[in-house]
Structures are given as C-alpha cells and as structure tokens.
Design brief:
Distance between the termini: 33 Å
Helix content: 40-55%
Shape: globular
Largest sheet: 7 strands, mixed
Number of strands: 18
Structural class: alpha/beta
Amino acid sequence: MEDYRRIADRIAADIAAGRLRPGQRLPPQRAFARRHGLAASTAGRVYGELVRRGLVVGEVGRGTFVRAAPVPTGRALAEPATTAPVNLELNYPSAPGQPELLAAGLAPLLRPDVLAGATRTAPATGTRAAREAAAGLLAAGGWRPDPERLLFAGNARQAIAGALAAVVPPGGRVGVERLTYPLVKEIASRLGILLVPLAMDDQGLCPDALVAAHRSTPLSALYVQPTLHNPTSVTTGEERMRRLADTVRLLGLPVVEDRIWAFLCGRESGKPLAAHAPERTYVVDGLSKRVAPGLTVGFLVVPEGRGEEAAGALRSGGWTAGRFALEAAVRWIGDGTVERLVTVKQADARERGRLVARYLDGFAVRADPRAYFAWWELPRPWRADTFVAAAAERGIAVTPGPAFAAGGSGAEGSAADCVRLGLASAPPRELAAALRTLADVARTSP
C-alpha cells in the first residue's frame, strides 16, 4: 500500500522541480501502469493520491493534468502568489504620476513637529477631521453617512472582519451571494462563522433566497456586494435594493455592505443599501483601490447605537487604523488627490473594459464597462482548473472560478468552468497581449 505513495512522491518532486509543467497531461492510467510495471489498481491509487494533494486534476474522458496551483482560498487575491509575468489575479489599479501626487500630501507629515502627533496611536473612531473627510468621500447617490457613525480600520478587509465579529457569534451563519469575495471565506473561517450561499440573478442577490435560507436555519447576518459585485460586476438596481432592504428589515438581520469598488460608478450612482436600511447596515469601504494598497485606511459606517460594539471588535482584533495613515488620508482627501486618482482610474477601467470587449468578443464574458474585472464562462470542454494551468504555462495568472464559490455543490459547480480576470494591475499593453493569448487558448482543445 505504501508503494503508490512513494511513486506519487516522485511525480510530486517532478512537478515541484518543473519537469512536469502546469497544464501538462499525464499518461492514461493504463499506460502509466504498463510503463512502470504496476497493477492498474496501483496506478489508480497513485493518480488518486496526486489529486488528493491538489497537484493534478482529472476529468473523465479528457485525462489528468498538472494543476497550476491549488485553488486559492483568497490570499492569492490580496498578495503576490505567482511568478507568472502577467498577473491577472491581483487587482490594484495605479494611475500615472500617482507616487508624485501621494508624495506631495505626505511631505507636511514628515516635519518633526507634525510627525510627533502623526505617529501617536489613534482610537477606532479616528479623529474628527478623519470622520468629516471620510463622510464626504463616501457620499453617493444623495446618501452621506453621519460622521459620528464612522470607524476606521487598517484596510477594508479588516473593516469586514470587525463588522462580522461585532454582529455574528462564533458558530453563526452568514448569508452571502453564492459567488463572493474569497477573503471573506478566510475571515469567516478564522472567526468560526459558516457562510451560507444564496442564489443570484442579473440583479444580484435574490431576496426570496435570503428568506428561504433564514427560515430553514436562522442566519445571524448578511454580507453583500450590491455595487460592482466581485467577480461578476453585477450592480443591484434601485427596485431590487428596496426589496432587499425590506427583506432584511422583515427578518431582523444586520447587513455588511461591501462598497470597495463602488467608487468606479461615481457619486451619481444609485443609493447604497445603507440609504434604504440605515438602522441595519454596516458599510465597508477603503482607500486601497482608490489610492494604493500599501498605505491605506478602511472605513466602517455603523448603524446608530452600534458604534461601541463595532469599535470593540476592531480593537480586540488589532484592526484599527494607524494614526499616520489617517493623517495621510485626511490630506489626500482634502487636497483633491483622491478625487483626481479616482477620475483617472474610472477612465482607465473603461479603457481596460474595451480591451476585454475587443479581444474576448464572441465569448461568454460578463463585465460591467466600469469594472476592473471580468467573469468568463469558458467554452466547452474547458474547465477552470485546466484553463488556469494552460494560462500559467503561457505566463499568465488568472483566478479559477471556484475560488469565489461560497460553498455547497451548487455554487462550486456553477463556477467550475469560469475564471475571473483582474484587469487593474497589468500595464495596458501587457493586458492586451494576455487577453489575446487567453482567447487563442480558449479556442483550442485542452
């Protein structure tokens, strides 16, 4: 019984050393058995062991292929996780001249007399100047948060964690869109929270699915991305938003509304869910996409009367914002730097969307022209694992659809033949070449 594991170890070593490359097809099991003088059952165990380790993927009728990497749990979307020359997993936009713009705002903070104050600790409530600046920045669709209901985290992910920790007990159930932000899965795992996938349509989350899930086994909260949903880029319309607000009010559920990409829609976009159900909604946003991921601040707007509870969650998790980052944010917002960067990035996202429309024309791609990402339903017989491996073999990293599946066979199955393309990080010329290459790959047979 141990022989097959030693054989699997040798194949694993070949994969690690690059002798077997991502996307490469392994011999059929019978051919492998003959070549190595093994029983067919032993060859089956070898291949099964490789699948169990996440090194290969096998599909009936097509063969067994070396995987590019294990399906990411979310970390790959937040930090470098690949050596591929063109990374369409990371998704942080950058504007021309951005470092110079940011440096001008930081320069006054580096004076010794100012730096002394800027390097002190800050409470979760930040400073009055930070609350006023953030309230103005987050205003959209006629909605403006009350500055006194604003809290600050190190980044938007920490704001999500703080909000969920404040409203969901360990072991609690949180409803999410069936495709959701992968790092929310990681956050939920660390907090001991169970995510419950809910059906979506072309308007976003289906309120009836939320009602059915809650009545089956009560939920503790809801997490949603109603504006430029990641990965599908769906934006929920006004009528559906009202229905969703009425539903969470009827069910008595708190809601964490993630608006991290909403800035791409502009200030005249539709009202957020928080405008329809302010007494239930925790709004999450941040500067990582608007400005830069390395020096950022997360924003958390809390319902009236919930500030201390949420602030306590941020403090206990070590998720509050640093004073220097807060001071930098106030200056960048106040001097117009953030607004200028947002304007440039909105135009940049539209241009990159045009590249997707040009090079992936004829494929089943869902992408709002304002968004920095696209959701691609691959043509048959491609599936996410084999396509990711084939892309990696050509120096392009893309995210497999199952990374976004909230759980359950239905969600996993619906994403198994999809990939998400992050459009923000690669220079436009590299992005265009990568899209052209991916289209060529998709037109071939795996």
